[in-house]
Design a protein that fits this description.
By secondary structure, the chain is α/β, with parallel strands linked by helices. Helices cover 40% and strands 20% of the residues. It is globular.
């Protein structure tokens, strides 16, 4: 498939999925390869024929929507963000709920590196300073295959290459891979969930929604998603988005470390 043909197709189909072309520009080759494989799997001649197939087959849109998921995940992706979580954000949140427990939600968790990474920070760098306080993490993704990998907690060495040495202690070797220790996995619960559908009730002290809604969703869906996330954050809680993303509407938030995509939910006035 020629790049120009694929770009034309994406510009046509993405708005119908409430997604935006600009979010996929840099990863379009990955998406184009997936679309091309689907075209051939269906026995169609080209992407133009696939477009006609979509118009005649409403159920195919769900398959196309699944093809548009771009999971890019490894431990400690964006080091400065995780360093800030361990040194500043998690301690501040724990100090606000002495003797209780923190609840975190990892949105679009892929194969688990993000929520497990937060748990590693908590156990190895923060927990000892807050006896009696525990961290529970809910992690969701729309891809059941990714969630299956996440629950296993088994990773290739390349996924751990950015982890600081002290956090590597959370893994044990299994053949040519590394498994997160059972005690760390126990603090993270995984569930099949699409952020565009029903959301967990909350409230949460920390929500991580990085490189997903505010990259790929269209403007209207971004605003709606932000409002729904805000409704599930405690006053004073932290929202973490991608450091190159921007919030579409910040009325409910103040900067915490905006250069890293970290914002604080304003206190709820009753």
């Amino acid at each position: 498939m020629k790049d120009a043909d694929c770009v034309e197709f994406l510009r046509w189909c993405l708005p119908s999925l409430r997604l935006r072309w600009s979010g996929f520009r840099k990863v379009r080759r990955t998406l184009c390869k997936r679309v091309d494989r689907q075209v051939r799997r269906l026995g169609l001649t080209d992407v133009g024929a696939y477009r006609a197939y979509l118009e005649a087959t409403p159920a195919e849109w769900d398959r196309l929507d699944a093809l548009c998921r771009i999971p890019i995940s490894r431990f400690y992706r964006d080091r400065a963000v995780f360093d800030c979580l361990g040194a500043d954000i998690l301690p501040a949140l724990a100090a606000a709920v002495p003797g209780e427990h923190l609840r975190a939600w990892s949105v679009g968790c892929a194969s688990g590196e993000e929520p497990y990474g937060v748990m590693l920070l908590w156990r190895y760098r923060v927990e000892a300073r807050f006896p009696g306080c525990r961290l529970d993490i809910l992690a969701g993704d729309a891809d059941p295959h990714m969630l299956e990998r996440a629950r296993r907690g088994l990773y290739a060495p390349g996924s751990l290459k950015d982890l600081p040495a002290d956090l590597l202690a959370g893994f044990e070797p299994v053949g040519d891979r590394f498994r997160l220790r059972e005690g760390l996995r126990a603090g993270v619960t995984f569930e099949l969930r699409d952020i565009r559908g029903a959301l967990p009730a909350g409230p949460f002290d920390l929500v991580l929604c990085r490189n997903l809604a505010f990259t790929y969703f269209d403007d209207e869906l971004q605003r709606a998603t932000l409002a729904r996330l805000a409704a599930r954050l405690r006053g004073g809680g932290a929202l973490v988005i991608g450091k190159h993303e921007a919030l579409p509407d910040r009325d409910d938030f103040t900067d915490w470390r905006a250069n890293l995509g970290i914002f604080r939910r304003k206190a709820v006035v009753r």
